[in-house]
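Lab notes, practical 5.
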Amino acid sequence: MAYGPNQLSSRGGRKWPGELAAQFTHPLALLLAAAAVLAAISGSPVLGAAIVGVIVLNAVFAFFQELHAEHAVEALAAYLPSRASVWRDGSRQDVDAVTLVPGDVLLVEEGDRISADGRLIDGSLEVDLSTLTGESQPVTRTTGKSDPSVPLLQVEDMVFSGSACLGGEGRAAVTRTGMHTEIGRIAALSERVGRDASPLEVQVKRVAKLIAVVAVVAALAFMPLGVLAGLSLAAAVSFAIGMLVANVPEGLLPTITLALAVGVQDLARRGAVVKRLSAVETLGSTTVICTDKTGTLTQNRMEVAGMWTAAGSGTASDDGRLSWPEFGTDDAGALARTLAATAARCCTAEVTPTGVSGDPTEVALMQLAASFDAPAGHGDRTALFRFDPRLRLMTTIDTDPDGGIWVNTKGAPEAVLSRSTQLADRSDQTRAFTADDQELLNRVIDEYASRGLRVLAVARRPLPDGSPPPSTREAAERDLCLLGVVALLDPARPEAADAIVRGHRAGIRFHVVTGDNGSTAGEIARRVGIGTGPDGMVTVSGDALNAMSEPDLDQLLTLGPEIVFARSSPEAKLRIADALRACGEVVAMTGDGVNDAPALRATDIGVAMGRSGTEVARQAATIVLTDDNIATIIDAVEEGRRVYDNVRKFILYIFTHAVPEVAPFLVFALSGGAIPLPLTVMQLLAIDLGTDTLPALALSREPAEPGTMDRPPRPRGEGVIRPALLARAWGFLGVISAVLVLAGFFVVLHAGGWHLHAATGVGAPLHHAYQQATTVAWLGIVACQVGTAFAARTDRVSLFSIGVTTNRLLLGGIAAELVLAAALIYLPFLHRVFGTAALSPTQVAVVIPYPFVIWGADEVRRWVQRHRAVPRQVRSPIASN
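Output from the prediction step:
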């Protein structure tokens, strides 16, 4: 066929062999591979195999975690029906939807899902465009002239592939099929956008490169120094291998992976399903949240927000109940009850044992009637004239409980007012509807509309006893008596306002990106607290955004106000996300519709609604909220910050031990072998792959420190390793640990009778004393690890402020670490593997104070740091005055 099949196409699946192989070329994976080779060279193939196992498991796990996010285009196909009704060769035919071509005449009826984009040539339809616009309110499509200045999705005679017909019937000339349709364009956009590396992924690669440079430079620099100092070539090579092993943190990558996996589990329990591990950390650095309106800030249902009658205006309280503070409360209340009962009768929503079901607007009207204790059923219905999209009216003829027969009408205010000749000023009293009344009603309606409310007018008239009911709606919808108008709003989620406050406190800005009109979206944004800061809020329409240049958009996004982007298209959402990221922002964008899929994939964090969202949005997103609760996004931000802080804590923990691990080899090399090697390569591996891992993993479960959500987001380019962290790890805790470890080694070795250049090799009289001294050095590093683990739990505050024993996992990890240490020291078969020896109680007592020295020293450092900051905090307000 000239136009190709009417279906969505994909560029092809993932190149999974290459992408899986790419997981093995991560810098830390390469470093782990180097460690595996070194372990094998050092005579420990079992440890080498274990490291290889870690590399494989981590790569496969990461690959399958990301595999789930690649099915958005496949999910889009579910919105396209397999069959379609067309008018061909002078008759109605049922054909495969894939065979539709431009020029076909598509027959559309209530309940159909539309198969292609087309222009109505006959009839009138009520269409659900939520798959394309994200807005739940049905729209009317009728034949007529097109306005070229109106965005395509708003053209009144256009229907679109993937949308559903809720009412009416008509014929449409097919204009576009397949990938040329609006839903096909969204599919193309979804495939076009790629995924950038998360901030943590970038930082981990930088850390890996830093570690690699330090390890290689240290090995290459000090090996010739060792030869010059008198080491043999074999000893110098052994020294270089030790330096590499000491500087490669074999446990870093699996510990980061496990920390992120734990964060994923925690978020899942709180209602957020994370599909990519690194997304947990990215959330913590979020600076801007672009949120949809319907279903995200709102409850995706309608609620009465106000009511006007000639006897008084009603206003809705926070709990949805109406009151009349102005005047004539009794009259106003009675007339409002009549209005509510009439509106409820003019509905097709059904009262079921579980509640009211049907159109959200009609459900709200029936709930309003119930709040007045007015009849909420349809009563004895004589006739029904369904909602006509052209007339924008619906009318029923019902018998009330007193036996009276009434024509009940509701619809667009201008349509009802034009058919009204009377105005009710009491529940039982009417008067002529005048031009002054019309002018007053216009002001009331405009005021409601300016607040983003949907306005319905309600009218009725009695039928004379014994007269037959009107047979046509023209005869029914005349000489009506206007009862008043009802204003409705999709109410804000009750938890949204608190979530916005928490986000603002954390330095996050919120922008609303919606397909709805600016007045409605702006009102909802104001109600939940968006735009209430000193910079205020601005509303930008889709047309205004399209007319903006890129520099103008960048300037708007960097000025500071929170923005409501109204009538936004999929391209607009992509453009907004790209502009924000170009300005250095870390962007999270929420969405639930098909039209949100491209932007959900393009942003740093795409957040889809799990309950109300489409499958397409869920497939394209990085995170799916199972409770559709915007507060869960803020919880996820806090979790991301906690995970990032904990990553830094165990990086501090791991980096600290590089110094006491490297120092023994430096002492050995610089002494030219006069001082025996205080630590063996196998003992280093026992630390890096054994005693290091459990406490580091336990640090990843630390709760968030106080004030985590009271600080601004970190910049996108800020490193996970900062100079202050290196100074604390290498220049403070590491130096103290190295001094303690070497002191323990020399104390035990000297007590055994050692002196410079004394032989300590196998068969020498001092060999056993030397083995005990290396064991004390090894145990000293383990003891320093315990102290560092407690010190790393907090960055500035005292550990006593959060509780020494509050991290039970850390206590368990330390206990397991000590059991492993005891095994290496006292199990004879492990002596041969690791070169350790059994220690006497006196020798063990040498290292017992080490944890307290390390922890205590860091407590003093943090105390000094806090007290140095106090004068600046005290002087700052004075200076500002």
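Observations recorded by the TA: Residues 824 and 832 are 10 Å apart (CA to CA). The chain has a mean pLDDT of 81.
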